[in-house]
Design brief:
Layout: E1 4-13, E2 16-26, E3 31-35, H1 42-50, E4 57-62, E5 68-69, H2 82-87, H3 91-110, H4 114-129, H5 135-145, H6 162-174, E6 180-184, H7 192-203, E7 208-212, H8 216-222, E8 225-230, E9 233-238, H9 241-279, H10 282-301, E10 325-336, E11 339-350, E12 354-358, H11 365-373, E13 380-385, E14 391-394, H12 407-415, H13 421-430, H14 447-461, E15 465-469, H15 477-489, E16 493-497, H16 501-507, E17 510-515, E18 518-523, H17 526-538, H18 550-593, H19 596-599, H20 602-637
């Protein structure tokens, strides 16, 4: 029997239908990822399953031994340490311990008693079977695995931040003994080390869970089924996220083919109907009616394939210019009072690089970006930008947004001197703010909506250095993919702090792993980073592990070469695209110059001639850039 069965479920809010006709079953051992764009109803579905919200139609049934584990909205523990708060999930075992201690005291005091000894024996068996010998060790290891320090275990829960309290709730949920977990964005507030611990825990978890997440790397590692909530319907598949996307792409392609074939058949039949009617004989009208019925039957079953949900559409463009050295830091250190955040940090970021800064929570990654952006001053050391480098900063806290502004005013206030009101509205529409939505106050926006506003402002700067602090937080998968595409095509320099390993894998030229005592460089994406770390640990040439083995050095050189080849190919591709665009623009100008309209207007003809000269000059520079890039690529590849 399934742990959970849902049949034809429908949920509405006033006139808006969130979902309709949802049916699925969760069997023991199912590790299910629930995905969909922000606002599609994923969290509401959890609330309905938990019984916190009513539903309109359908049925929800649980197995007789189903024990659901969920996270509460708030942590209500007062005067309790973190350890005691989480350990309270084992209250039944703690009560058994107290009863066993009481029985022991009574036996010592009054001597043997058969009933008490029998009770002690049965209670101890229950206690051991329920995990009484290990629950304290499991509590401690879970809290440490999620990133809490030993000192924090004894800290009062009321002193923790909201994010840390959520982590405490997650620890309690994982230890709850439930056999069906409902996890809503469990990787929020976790650093990569804690996320990897959670992945290992969930991958080995014997119970079932449904997890809402936009973390594609995480979904690939922990799920064996995916449910996608889209356009009020549920699309299900076996396998992880990547497999689901392959299947969905294939299914959409087949649906479109069937749809187009059906439309073509309808058109063919109706052409025959029209022909029969033109012939005008009685038997022709009978044939026409028969054929029309066949066309109508196909129309009745014809369903247009689903369209892709609205997604952000944008691109970043960097201003021209800027030196080859974009960010230079030497001996950089930062402390807050007596607390050292980091020291001895050196880094050099070159033009066009996409550099990702990784490290544990609290190691100073955001502080480093603040220093590069000029928001903070270092305690010691040097940090400066290269010549003609203009930086734009995406802050994780989004504190730069004015809560009293409307969405439109927030963008208009910054760009009214350079961008027309109409163009700003068009840009907002591309970021899914349409109609009255542009009049919403910033303070009323969701985290995802605020992120979209900040991304739009960043896009409009045309800066040639982007500093991004957790840019994919609050974004759904579709928006993350749009951001990735935009950053992939961006021709400036990017420094990113993120826990989004999928983003790192796709875009990183280099990874800088940050520690309190400096940085270590790795070439390539996240998987390359993991491989390099594993190899360098296994193949060190001395006991302290400071010197890489020859194989590890060879690996690093190979990755460096691959990174250089990728950059060269990108430069060739960009140059080719720019040449094609410029040639097309020059062709249009020359065509206008040869037209009668401009032949008699010397002023307009003069302006166009000047523009043609400028385009020709630009084209010559682009050809030179292309030749240099192509030669560099040839040198690297030996082709």
């Amino acid at each position: 029997m399934p742990l959970l069965a849902v049949n034809n479920l429908k949920k509405s809010f006033v006139t808006r239908v969130l979902f309709d006709g949802l049916s699925f079953e969760i069997e023991p051992g199912d590790h299910v990822g629930l995905i969909g764009v922000n606002g599609c109803g994923k969290s509401t579905l959890f609330s309905v399953i938990e019984g916190r919200e009513a539903y309109d139609e359908g049925m929800i049934a649980f197995g007789h031994d189903t024990r659901i584990g969920t996270m509460a909205q708030t942590v209500m523990a007062k005067d309790a340490t973190l350890y005691d708060y989480v350990e309270s999930v084992f209250s039944e075992l703690i009560d058994m311990e107290k009863e066993l201690d009481g029985i022991n005291d009574e036996l010592l005091k009054n001597g043997p008693d058969d009933k008490l000894i029998d009770r002690q024996h049965r209670l101890r068996e229950r206690y051991e079977d329920a995990g009484g010998m290990t629950f304290r060790a499991r509590t401690r290891s879970t809290l440490l695995g999620l990133g809490f320090s030993e000192d924090e275990l004894l800290k009062d829960v009321s002193l923790f931040s909201g994010g840390q309290r959520n982590k405490a709730q997650l620890a309690k949920l994982l230890l709850s003994g439930a056999n069906l977990l409902l996890l809503d964005e469990p990787t929020n507030h976790l650093d990569i080390k804690a996320i990897e611990w959670l992945e290992d825990f969930l991958s080995a978890y014997r119970g079932a869970f449904i997890v809402i997440s936009h973390d594609r790397y995480f979904l690939d590692r922990v799920t064996n089924k995916i449910m996608e909530l889209k356009d009020k319907k549920l699309f299900k598949s076996k396998g992880n996220y990547s497999r689901h996307m392959e299947l969905r792409s294939t299914a959409r392609e087949l649906e479109m083919r069937r749809y187009l074939r059906a439309k073509k058949e309808i058109k063919r039949i109706e052409g025959m109907v029209e022909q029969q009617r033109r012939w005008g004989q009685e038997h022709n009208f009978i044939t026409a009616a028969h054929k029309q019925k066949a066309a109508d039957r196909i129309k009745e079953t014809l369903v247009e394939p689903e369209k892709d949900s609205a997604a952000i559409k944008f691109s970043f463009h960097a201003k021209e210019g800027g030196g080859n050295d974009v960010v230079i830091a030497k001996g950089l250190a930062k402390s807050f009072g007596a607390k050292k955040v980091f020291s001895g940090l050196d880094m050099l970021v070159k033009k066009g690089e996409k550099v990702f800064v990784l490290g544990d929570n609290g190691c100073g990654k955001s502080t480093l970006l603040n220093i590069i952006a000029g928001v903070m001053r270092p305690t010691s050391g040097l940090c400066c930008l290269g010549a003609h480098i203009e930086a734009a900063y995406y802050e994780q806290t989004m504190a730069s947004l004015n809560p009293d502004n409307t969405v439109l005013d927030e963008v208009w206030d910054k760009y009214f001197n350079t961008i027309s009101h109409r163009d700003i509205r068009n840009a907002l529409a591309a970021f899914l703010f349409r109609g009255d939505e542009v009049e919403k106050k910033i303070s009323l926006l969701s985290g995802g909506e605020k992120a979209r506003v900040q991304l739009l402002k960043l896009m409009l700067t045309r800066a040639n250095l982007l500093l991004l602090d957790e840019p994919t937080n609050h974004l759904d998968i579709a928006s993350r993919e749009a951001l990735e595409n935009a950053l992939d095509e961006y021709d400036g320099t990017v420094i990113v702090v993120t826990h989004d390993r999928y983003l790192v894998n796709r875009l990183a030229d280099r990874i800088l792993h940050m520690t309190p005592d400096g940085m270590r460089e790795y070439i390539g994406g996240y998987d390359d980073y993991l491989e390099a770390v594993k190899e360098s640990r296994a193949e060190t040439s001395n006991a302290d592990g400071k010197k890489l083995s020859a194989n590890a050095m060879e690996y690093k050189e190979k990755k460096q070469l691959q990174s250089e080849i990728t950059k060269a190919r990108t430069a060739v591709s960009r140059a080719e695209k720019s040449i094609a665009d410029t040639e097309a623009e020059l062709g249009n100008v020359n065509e206008k110059l040869s037209s009668n309209e401009y032949a008699s207007d010397y002023v307009k003809a003069g302006e166009l001639s000047k523009k043609a000269d400028e385009l020709q000059s630009r084209l010559e520079k682009l050809y030179e850039e292309w030749e240099n890039a192509a030669q560099r690529l040839s040198e690297l590849t030996g082709a």
